[in-house]
Amino acid sequence: MKSKESRVPDSAKLLKISYPFKNPVNSIDPHKIHFIEEALLSQPLNSKLVNVFQNGKINGEMASDIYWNGEAYELTIRSYKTSGGVIIDAEDAYISLLRIVAIDKNTHGSLKNLICPNSVVKNLNDKCEGLKLRDNKIVLKPKSKVNKSLIIQLLASTDFTIIPKDQIDFNHPENLNLDLSNTTGLYFLLEDDGKGNFTFAINPNHFQYSHLNFQKLNFKYGFGEQSLADLKARIVNYIPTNGYLTPLDIKNLDENYIKYSSHPILLYSIRPTKKSLKKYSDNTRLAIGRILSEKVRKLKSSFGSVTTNQFFPIDGDGQLSEIQEKKLESLVEKAKNEINYNNVEFTVSVYKDLYDEFVQLLSDIPYIKIVQLRDSPWVLPEEEQPDFYLATGDSSFFANISLLSYFFNNGVFGTKEDGEIWLDKYTKVMNKKERIKMLQDLHFKFLAEGRVFPSFFIPYIALSNIPMNIGLSKHFASNPFFLLTAKEDE
């Protein structure tokens, strides 16, 4: 019988990837993911219990079986070895989930609130009443009057990965001692210069291993035009979904390139900063934000786009009713007519590669000034923040609690405190029609308050210059590297 290594085709030995991440990979805390760049690197290194990568339905990952026993979920956990021979089993899953409960600070939702809201968990010797380790099973029991399906849905989100238990500080769960040469995921970190150039190697002991998976992933820093230039020069082979490509970028590429496009779920929008939310009235933000979002639709990158004034996509849950749409437009027009445009100046920041184009687009509006910043607007002190900024991001909603939590935590849907109250109520609603009505009303509220100004949707794009299978779902922004496979050698 041939070994796994001997079955690996030459085409699967290395994939060179352009990637927009410039920090050391071990700076990522897998349980505190804020950006897609962190998420897509955490996925191959750290396995989850379940996922929804391909079909929008829950699939077992580390969990080989998911069973509802009438009171709790029982997840049967696989046992396998890391690349260095460390055994991974149900105890690792239990300790990681207990850490998530203890720190209760991830951006994609609170597991603690769903299974043990009254437990005091400060270290990993404390107990969470709704989380048990039983032989090779994890048992998750929801608190009373909670929609139980939301627990499994939450486990599929990007913050809920499993870390080897010996890399977590039991007494101070905030602290990690990551050894990325021993990971729970299909890949481990082989080398990293800390400046955006790093290599992942495959773990042949992993349950997802296939001889057609790329055995090494070599990452080189780049995005947008630079990534495309590197791909055309064959310096890299692949640009993932977070590579900032647009339909216009791939319009004239020949058939030698393998192209992937999601459904139109990448939203371009204008967002006010914290400074703007304090400084201006809802009416002022409604007027200026809408003027800016209408200008954004004239960007070259809007080629092939779907114009929108709504945050949730056309095929997602929570679209405004016809009555809500008309009411929102009435509020916007009223705000535009009432604002005094004299002797005022509003500042807006955009991505560096769009700066010149945006200056030209706004040349006829004297009361708006485009500024260049030293950092992302949301991390700057309030006194250095612009009033508005151009944002892009995933809006693939399917009444998804993890994304709802994420957008409350970053202020788009309201304050974090607003989110805790709203989400607590949402998790207790069993009827789907009632949940959709809650989503509609939330959607209208944050749009009417001038918290975000949608402009257009385009697809997420991935691109390769070598023959390969890009098995990504069209419903999600994610780019799981185990879904990229080489062709068999002929």
Can you give a write-up of this model?
There is one protein chain. β10 and β11 (198-202) form a beta hairpin. Strands 13, 14, 15, 16, 17, 18 and 19 form a seven-stranded mixed sheet that branches. The chain starts with 14 loop residues before the first strand and ends with a strand. It is globular. α8 (282-296) packs across α9 and α11 (401-409) runs antiparallel to α12 (416-427). The protein has three domains: 1-46 and 185-257 and 465-490, D-Maltodextrin-Binding Protein, domain 2; 48-91 and 100-173, Dipeptide-binding Protein, Domain 1 (Dipeptide-binding Protein, domain 1); 265-458, Dipeptide-binding Protein, domain 3 (Roll), CATH 3.10.105.10. It has 490 residues and is an alpha+beta fold. The protein has 13 helices and 21 strands.
Q: Uncertain spans, ≥5 residues at pLDDT below 50?
A: 1-5
CATH topology of the largest domain: Dipeptide-binding Protein, domain 3
Distance between the termini: 20 Å
Instruction: Indicate the overall shape.
Output: globular
Q: Main beta sheet: strand number and arrangement?
A: 7 strands, mixed
As a whole number of angstroms, the C-alpha radius of gyration is 23 Å
H/I helix tally: 13
Strand content: 15-25%
Whole-number count of domains: 3
The CATH superfamily of the largest domain turns out to be Dipeptide-binding Protein, Domain 3
The tally of beta strands, per DSSP, is: 21
Reported CATH architecture of the largest domain:
Roll
What structural class do you assign from the helix and strand content?
Answer: alpha+beta
CATH class of the largest domain: Alpha Beta
